[in-house]
Here is the input.
Amino acid sequence: MAIPARPGCYEFFAGGGMAGLGLERFERLFANDLDPMKIAAFEANHGAGSIRRADVWDLTPTDLPGHAALIWASPPCQDVSLAGHRVGLDGARSGAFWGFWRLIEGLVAEERAPSVVVIENVMGLLSSNGGEDFRAIGRAMVEAGYRWGALELDAADWTPQSRPRLFIVAARDPLDGVADLAKGHGLSPRIRAAHAALSRDVSASWRWWSLPTPPRRNVDLSAILEPDDLVDWLPPATQEALLALLSPLHRRRLEAARTASLAGRRQVAAGYRRVRIEQGGKIQRLELRFDGLAGCLRTAAGGSSRQFIVVCDQGELRARRLSPREAARLMGLPDDWVLPRGETAAMKLLGDGVAVPVVRALSEGLLEPLLGIAARRVA
Here is the structure.
């Protein structure tokens, strides 16, 4: 079948539609989510009626218009997240994957199978249920007639946020021009270990997808922050209580940064609270990183709280919360992208999303070549 200049795609568990922004060479034919807040955010950015609100289990192939060359799905990750309870694909949320895959099987039966399917999720999917969840997904793809592989891509290669994510890519009749080599960007030790644990029948359909090495990232955390005079800093007592959570190691890091700032070198750190085991008990700690990266944006449901910004300037320390707009920039979203009004809702939407530059790199480096799309960008 000839591939049109802008092949169609479906976007499942679409959230605010971040994946679609990275898939700029594709025409979105259908989008789906269940969360009312995410539906509102999607429509605020893509137009009223641009997304179907429904439980994926309630959809049938007749709800899906046309013939999509590509289907993207970012199913709920809480049950397989390393920060969650590791219930796996049998959990109430991550089990939605099987409702989604039922649609793929229906499209195959109707001879409307997409040429490419992408599943985006947390890295914990590789090991949840002892690795059986990952193996079950691969088995389902093989039974539906797909060849498949996986990549680990970290948003830190494109935007100043440490955010490793798993991308499972399945394709029917991949083009000969797409290399199948066990080397290249995205083939991490975790991917190799998961592949090694596959059964022979499932691994026979495995393909070593990879991307070209991305150019060196030239933007760090400080570059995406709001000006100091436009943000609300923590009151002294609140800041003192926050910094009291530092372990001795992280306090030494902070003091070293403050000393460096006395020489005129402004220092910026991302801070996040974690529960650690110390001397046999749980204790909450504030951890800082001065490497130009924010930690992975998460939501409360994922087991992590909102991040902080700590600045050392001329020996003075100031701390504040990361703003939703700054978080949006860390996800690669433009400043005119409409966020939910409430900060909690905005941070949940962003923490559940996929970084746009990563999707764009995956599309240009693998998905478009798989579909035979000419290597040119949409203006």
Notes: The longest strand covers residues 267-278. The chain is about 30% helix and 20% strand. The mean pLDDT is 90.
